Amino acid sequence: MTEKQKKSEKAFAPEVDERELHKLERTWEEPRGIMGFLMTTNHKTIAKRYIVTAFIFFLLGGMEAALMRLQLSRPGNNLLNPDLYNEIFSTHGTTMMFLFAVPIMEGIGLYFVPLMVGTRNVAFPRMNAFGYFIYLIGGLFLYTGFFLNVGPDAGWFAYVPLSGPEYSPGKRVDIWGQMITFTEIAALVGAVEIITTVFKQRVPGMSLNRIPLFVWTQVVTSFMIIFAMPAVMLASQMLPADRLISTHFFNPAEGGDALLWQHLFWFFGHPEVYIIFIPALGFISSIIATFTRRAVFGYTAMVLSLIATGFIGFGLWVHHMFATPLPQLGQSFFTGASMMISIPSGVQVFCWIATLWSGKIHMKTPLIFVLGFFAIFTIGGLSGVMLASVPLDLQVHDTYFVVAHFHYVLIGGAVFPLFGAIYYWFPKWTGKMLGERAGRWHFWLFFIGFNLTFFPMHWLGLKGMPRRVYTYLPEMGWSYGNLAASIGAGVMALAVLVFLVNVLKSLRVGEVAGDNPWGAETLEWSVSSPPPVYNFFYLPTVNGRNPLWSQMEETPVVVGLSTECREVLVTNILDAEPEHRYELPGPSIWPFLLALAVGETFTVGIFTPWGFPVGAALSTLALFGWFWSKPKSEGVRALEKPKTRSLDEARLSEEGA
Amino acid sequence: MREKTRRKGRVDAGKNRRGDAATRGRGEEERSYLVLSPRPRVPVSPRPFLICVIASVLLLSCTRERREFRQAPPGARTETLSQSDLHPGGYIPAVQTKNPAEENAPALSEGKRLYEWYNCSGCHSHGGGGIGPALMDNKWIYGSDPANVYETIVEGRPNGMPSFRGKIPDYQVWEIAGYVRSLSGLVRRDVAPVRDDHMRATEAPAETTPEHPKGTGVPKSAERPQ
What we know:
The complex is a heterodimer of chains A (657) and B (226). Chain A is an all-alpha fold. Chain A has 21 helices and 5 strands. Chain A has helices at 2-12, 18-28, 33-39, 43-72, 82-117, 125-147, 172-200, 213-245, 258-292, 299-312, 328-340, 342-358, 365-387, 390-396, 400-430, 436-462, 479-509, 547-550, 590-604, 611-628, 647-652; strands at 539-540, 557-558, 567-571, 578-583, 636-637. The longest helix of chain A has 36 residues, at 82-117. Chain B is an all-alpha fold. Chain B starts with a helix and ends in a 43-residue tail after the last helix. Chain B has helices at residues 2-15, 19-36, 47-59, 105-117, 121-124, 146-155, 170-183. Chain B is built from 7 helices and no strands.
């Protein structure tokens, strides 16, 4: 291990010209101060903002969950009135799905994809900054509304007619709809960046069949975002249009269709589950490879399963609508598809088990969280197969059984791997290790608390407790299950507290991590922790799927990229052959201003239609400013190929597998 | 010099992750500090500013969306305009001319529903008028103030408007009154209800316009009092 590491160190630390390094640092330097904060285009800074912001929303959503559990801990409780309870559960679901899960997964992707494919920044770095500000504006908009008693109260999927103009007066649902628009814009922007970065900016040698599994998950997720999000953005504009300017998209009496909402929403909503879950699969693959000291078994099968999941994920949405009067044949089709999706997931789980089986296991906190994922996700998957059948689904539709199921798959499938990923990559982000002992406390408290909270909900659901009720009668016999769930929620809150203390303590007095504390294989571990602003002084080349483990003394690096402008290497899609050098734009205030203009459009637009023309004018101005400021030198230098030392050799050397 | 330590640091990190890495990490931080930021960093964080903005927003309360769950019992009546200046005992009742429901979107939405349920639409249609006068124009026979509308509903008016005293709980009268005023745009736009999920109340298409009997016109008895 150490030997391998030494080799990689040598391979990635050829002679560094002092003056060139200085120039490179100057070139990529981030601007300072408040203006600098608003102008930066560094993918690592922006990704960290995504992660921290999303985690704050996670804590807010968690507090709302705790309030709900407190309210339900005993029958006939008066802590929250029904209206506030509606707002809290809607905001909880909305926060967790739109403001926490998707952005944090994308944030981690935006941080590591450029590092893993070996480039200096994402493609379209200014758009990246724009995406973050749009997301932040959306989140602040929702919570400003929530604290002013204008939080959404029609559930996180806001079915019409309940969320329509007749039954949801006021601005609550409008705020919800526009928040969706904001977060979907941000997600789309991030997806475009990730796809472009992965397809065009990989280091030489990283052909498609050598891309790390983590990067594959991000690519599949990004494609899913691009196909799923437009549906919900359309819906989230049609609903406020119905509510604000009396269109009739969802009014059956005037030729609209109430079920149209459900179709549009779940055509996005079900892929959304996979948009959250697939990046988590990437975390798991990274963690398992590192802590078993071997490459993940069945790379091709894994990648194909990911892509299959991405496709089948779009053929399931109707299983959220089994209680609506859809044709039987259609329902059977979606039952079949829902059961089919467990095949690619199963393939991946078996590949991981094979990896664990044949590897040398280092039982560290990240791996423990991944093992927790196996246990919980399997239970969630089993109740998922149950729910995929129409008759059972009809019985337990909108009961706590469903609540139990999706918390098992979402917390088990995404939050456990996410915590594992945070323990795994925290050293890379901050240069400090997270406490191992506290990590174990965190895991066990979270694991036990989670099961104590959500397992009784299966039973409550079968006993007939409907979801979204603010209280219940003592005669219903649901008291003990609810009390157990509430106690479990307290234990989970304690676990998150342990985690927060661990993070804060490690940031101050944590053990200093080296470049590669876990001895991992992917390229992000070849640079210092935290990585320098330019990522790599020399872009590396790779000769296999596990670059740092197969790195040789003579592995070439890319030279010839300018140190005086923000240049990146553009390579072709299949084989990552160098094509040309491209200059990325630097810091700019215009993305922030454009985000403000778009923010004005959608926030003011729900109070007065003047918001739209004014916003359009402001956006146009901001776009003019954005495109006016060109990079100093020419964008593309196609003629002059970058020089790579013994690149041909690298291309020829076949990987072992 | 710098280059040497850098490379040395890398080898150290490879050899011993625990011990040497610690010293190395700190050293590197200092170095990069020297290189990256020759001028001192201004410790201005946008966070306090952000917190101030959020806090000041939170100080404003919002009653537009409040849902009321416990209302006054039916039978109670608000003193609004009195029909006469004469009062026994010199007692002058408090006069309420502001409609509490008009600032509240759920209340107005409720008013809209009650407008159907108490069959206001039977005479006034969906605001366009029929047996009773239109409510969506700017003509008000008995005044457009909230209190006037309230009195019209509770006390009734000559020529057809019945009295709903004791039949509609007081808070619901206010909700209906608010909705009636919203029909002619007298209520804030962001509070007034929008469309409902039924057929849109529009004028009949041209080809089905009812034709009056020739020569007679509108009978005198069907004209509205002005």
